[in-house]
Amino acid sequence: MLFEIPVIRKSVATKTLEVEADTFEEALDKALAQAPDEDWAGCTQDYEYDVDRTPPTTCVFCGQPMPGNMDKVVDEGWSPDFWDEDEHCDGPVCNDCTMKYLGMDQSGELVLKRLDGEFVSRWDSGVESKSPCKVNVRTRDVEVQEVRDTPTVGVLEEKYVLLEGKKYQAEPQEHRSAFSPKEQAGIFFWRQ
């Protein structure tokens, strides 16, 4: 992955270096090591160097680091913001997630799509009940479209959401506060 790292020659100048690295931290270290060998427009190179250790801005959905400033990446398909019903949401959203999760409404605004999924209840006897659902990937809310009656056959083992071929834990909306924000990021919450 290619990172652009601003390297600061303390109190004197800033120069952005392009370094090849696997992680942001590795890119910072490589940029610092490379800084003394750079041409700093005729200035002496007897300075201390440092880097801004603020992590890069990332896509709000997948966490991909934004490769540059917003003005530059908008041309590459990144979106600075979007709407989720009446709520204006800050981005950025990478090109892949823009294509996957956002759509254009009648007024030309980018809006969050509700994704089609399946809400599944599974009993210890192996019986499963599947109902179509709509999923909000930003809030992690699930709206079950129609609940299909299935005779209870044994003990209910789990409820989960199938979305884009992946299985996600599902919990009732009223249990959301029992999970940490990190745990909530991997769970979808349904209304009973």
Structure report:
The protein is mostly beta strands and 192 residues long. It folds into 3 domains: 2-51, no CATH class; 70-112, no CATH class; 115-190, no CATH class. 14% of the residues lie in helices and 41% in strands. It has a 6-stranded mixed β-barrel. The two termini are 44 Å apart.
The overall average pLDDT, rounded, is 81
Task: Tell me how many strands there are.
Answer: 13
What percentage of amino acids are in beta strands? 35-45%
> Taking Cα atoms only, what radius of gyration do you get, to the nearest Å?
23 Å
Order of helices and strands: EEHEHEEHEEEEEEEHE
Number of helices: 4
* Spatial arrangement of strands, main beta sheet: 8-9-10-13-12-11
Alpha carbon gap, first and last residue: 44 Å
Number of domains: 3
Shape: elongated
Query: What percent of the residues sit in helical stretches (DSSP H or I)?
Result: 10-25%
